[in-house]
Design brief:
By secondary structure, the chain is mostly helical.
């Protein structure tokens, strides 16, 4: 018990607190940069594919993937589970197949852009905590509110993607899953913003 208390005290000391916030800020910044690079990469791949799609036989590519056991094992879903999606894709014309692929790339790029915005505000929040004398600042309150809002944007966009993807592929059944954990984190950020606002008001009241 005493050991756990010592660990908590170490983290809550000024040096430990600053180090923890700095590390979390750096990790968030890394996520932001990786997400931005991913979004740009998606855009570049989309442009290259759009320019050279006439020389690509997508039906043959899908046939190779579905017939190769090693490639099948690396797919996020099994071929059997995704057979309806694959059949719907192969039934389309080459131009429609290209549109589906470019649409998928665009959806991924947008999601990465959203994640980068969320990570940006998280990084700024921890950077403020590491360098400010008091955590109860209007900038931190604003960051927390934006973090909560962007988390809800991620949840909403994920639901939208789950609705759009089957429709694009011509699949009738649509399955929607909602991340309650992520929604809870979003509400937590907004509640924490209210707590920080209360702390900000109390600090200003003492100064007066």
């Amino acid at each position: 018990m005493a050991k756990k208390e010592d660990e908590v005290k170490m983290v809550l000391t000024k040096k430990g607190y600053k180090t923890t916030c700095t590390v979390l800020g750096i990790l968030s910044k890394i996520v932001e940069v990786v997400a931005i690079i991913g979004a740009i990469t998606c855009g570049v791949c989309g442009v290259i594919l759009g320019l050279g799609y006439q020389s690509i036989n997508l039906n043959d590519a899908v046939e190779i993937i579905t017939s190769d056991a090693d490639l099948r094992a690396q797919l996020p879903i099994s071929i059997d589970d995704g057979k309806q999606w694959i059949d719907g894709f192969l039934a389309k014309s080459q131009g429609e197949q290209l549109a589906v692929i470019l649409g998928g790339i665009a959806l991924v790029a947008i999601m990465l852009a959203i994640i980068s915005m969320l990570a940006h505000h998280v990084s700024k929040f921890f950077k403020n905590l590491a360098h400010s004398r008091s955590p109860f600042s209007m900038d931190n309150i604003d960051r927390l509110q934006k973090i909560g809002i962007w988390i809800f944007v991620v949840v909403g966009y994920s639901i939208l993607v789950e609705i759009i993807t089957p429709l694009i592929l011509g699949v009738s059944n649509v399955t929607i899953s909602v991340s309650l954990d992520l929604i809870g984190v979003g509400f937590g950020a907004l509640v924490l913003a209210v707590v920080f606002k209360r702390g900000y008001d109390l600090e200003n009241k003492k100064k007066d």
